[in-house]
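Whether sequence alone determines local backbone shape is best considered at the level of individual chains. The sequence in question and its structure tokens are set out directly beneath this paragraph.

***
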Amino acid sequence: MSNLETEVREIRDLLLVDNVDPKVANHLRWADMSSSQQNVWSQYRTDLLNVPQQAGFPANVTWPTPPEEL
């Protein structure tokens, strides 16, 4: 694995831990969301997980846009 690939994966992992997990893993927060909001957050999480499958990875990554804060 190249240094750039490692760096991009680390950024992706930090986004998951800092932005997604506090919302998705918190059952009370998740339950307070509408199904539409849950779908948006689920898609964002999936898009982050799929970053390594992008055609230009790791040199040309298109980062998914995070959902609006609740």
Notes: The chain has three helices and no strands. The two ends are 37 Å apart (CA to CA).
